[in-house]
Input
Amino acid sequence: MKETILLFHFSDKSRKNKLARALLPLRMKIREVAREDYLQPVGYLAGNKEIPPSEESYQGEELEGEMMLMAGLSNMQVDQVLKAIRKSGAGSIPYKAVLTAFNQEWNVLKLFAEIKAEHEQMGKQYSNS
Output
């Protein structure tokens, strides 16, 4: 699978352009996922041909925040992406994930819910320490 970065709910064009420019030197495919595709398995969206697509089209609400999914990247490449984002001036992306064998069959909504729950749990841990 080609190194791919999936973007979800990036409505601010200026921010999205800063992000794309920052990631361009890393030579990774950047794909913005449409809301209608939120019921698709994230592995399928990232280009894994072994995961079948869903027949359903999502008609619900947009995600509560921006999310980025990194697929097919080594640990070093993930670090490079995160460093490029920090340097880009595009601001932080609170919901980030790496595609794994465990989450590749989840749809976008489930992935977002899991990341959001982890994010909130981490916030509680930091506020309690």
Notes: The two ends are 40 Å apart (CA to CA). Residues 4-128 form one domain.
